[in-house]
Amino acid sequence: MTSLMPRIIAQIGLFLSIATFTLGVWAKDITGIVVSVADGDTVTVLSPERKQFKIRMAAIDSPEKAQAFGQRSKQHLSDLVYKKEVRVQVVDIDRYKRHVGVVFLGDKNINLAQVEEGYAWVYRQFVKNVPKPMANALFEAEETAKASKKGLWSDKNPTAPWDWRREQRK
């Protein structure tokens, strides 16, 4: 039994380190004014401390600017949040060092609003980064927007941004 104790203690230490890191990423909120909207899923937030944070909106992917509905998606997001105070629940940091998060204007989930209005897809590759209830709400919103032919779904055969980007690289 005593020979197992150091191993158990080491495993508990590793678990606590991972849990602390994960909670640190998930628990961090950024609040501030949206000072820039790059496209339909990326904003820049200026904190009260005058620090800028580039935010990639979690679990959604909007059309690229040069793609059909790209400009409309950006405009819709601008109409919702530009020059307004938002809160971002950070869920990750991406390979470009952007904060990835869920943007809230008051109680309104802006990531969800982009999907509900047909200006973004659920980003299937990264939807695992958000809690299951939110993922379910996103998928439901996408199906509803699609059935209602809202936004990009009014196009007969809309091209998902990840497919569009892959074609552009060829």
The string of secondary-structure elements, in order, is: HEEEEHEEEHEHH
> With helices defined by DSSP (H or I, 4 residues minimum), what is the helix count?
5
CATH class assignment: Mainly Beta
What is the total number of structural domains?
Answer: 1
Ends distance: 60 Å
Mean pLDDT: 89
- Give the percentage of residues in beta strands: 25-35%
Q: Which CATH architecture is right?
A: Beta Barrel
Biggest beta-sheet profile: 5 strands, mixed, barrel
Regions with little confidence, pLDDT below 50 for 5+ residues:
10-26
Quaternary arrangement of the chains shown?
single chain
Q: What share of residues is helical?
A: 40-55%
Helix/strand-derived category reads alpha+beta
Number of strand elements: 8
Radius of gyration: 19 Å
Strand arrangement within the widest β-sheet reads 1-2-3-6-5
Query: Given the C-alpha coordinates, what overall shape results?
Result: globular
CATH topology: OB fold (Dihydrolipoamide Acetyltransferase, E2P)
Description:
The protein has 170 residues and is α+β, with helices and mostly antiparallel strands. It has one domain (30-169): OB fold (Dihydrolipoamide Acetyltransferase, E2P). Helices cover 40% and strands 26% of the residues. The strands form two sheets. Strands 1-2-3-6-5 form a five-stranded mixed barrel. Strands 4-8 form a two-stranded antiparallel sheet. It is globular and about 45 Å long. Residues 10-26 have low confidence and may be disordered.
